[in-house]
Amino acid sequence: MDIRDIARRAKVSTATVSRTVNGAGTVSPHLAKRVWKVVEEVGYYPDTHARALVSGRSRVFGLIVSEITNPFFPEIVQVFENIAVENGYEILLSSTVHDPERMKLAVRRMIQRRVEGVAVMTFGMEESLLGDLKLRNIPIVVVDVGPQLPRVSNIKVDYQHGMRQAVQHLAALRHKQVAFISGPVTLKSAAARQSAFVKSMEEIGLQVLPELLIEGDHTLEGGMTAMEQLARRVQRPTAIICSNDMTAIGVMGRSYEEGIRIPQDLSVVGFDDIRLARFVIPPLTSIQMSQSELARLAFHALLTDSRRERPASQGSQYPLQTSLILRDSTALAPNNSSTASR
Fold first, then answer.
1. pTM value?
2. pLDDT averaged over the chain?
3. Vertex 304, ends 303 and 308: CA angle to 5°?
4. Is the dihedral of CA 234, 238, 244, 246 positive or negative?
5. Which residue of 93, 153, 184, 186 pairs with 316 in a disulfide if CB–CB is 3.0 to 4.6 A?
């Protein structure tokens, strides 16, 4: 069943059918009702790919995330899709698993499907990988790493605000030996979080010991491995700030196995405030970076850019605030050094 069959059954022109199913608004209610009656009777679905070839509008946005198994990303996907549906859009989803080759394949698939814009929520993929999208004038939104170019929107995360709150919170609880477990140093977002930690410590005169700066990989296993390193120290830190919540939960798991009590022996702070953070025991204190707000900003940026006749010459900037969410994984530092020692 195609558009000609619908037109013949409804006794209208193919142009009338096309305008009706595409919501053009120029068809009389009487004719539109007749068309929709036939469409429903025969179960007709428009060929969206063919429609995109003719109109140049696919009403599809691409969404690329790092890994769908990380609890940080499903909420972004869900909120992004919800807003897309509300606005009459579909989404094409890809996961890179931190692999540049997968990123290239994802971008190629987006171009083949003629998406109207792409949100790249990978927190550090290099700008060069987005060249094909920019070359085709497809609107892009990225986090932190966007160049100031037309059709490129950049969501700028204020890592410093939330990190400063976390460090000052631990200082108020009399912690002096504070460790930081970063993400992969190749990720610009991970480097930005570590830089924010170091700056926040220096602002209040707390020493940053190089041996307490541990590189992780933003996974549960990475958090457990990093905690093993710190637990072997004669003088353990009394508090740890982690570059994401999955790392922090890994730290908590290894601490339990080592007989280290949280928060009595060790205070732990995560980053991202994923939904799981409030359900671990004890509930995790975390620096919140709202996933729903991130998704909302990303969709708004793409929708705005795709509708502009003239793109902003320097692209667009969208700020995203971070803030500390207090729960039960932080407490007063142990009274003496023997408590903090192995």
1. 0.82
2. 88
3. 115
4. positive
5. 153
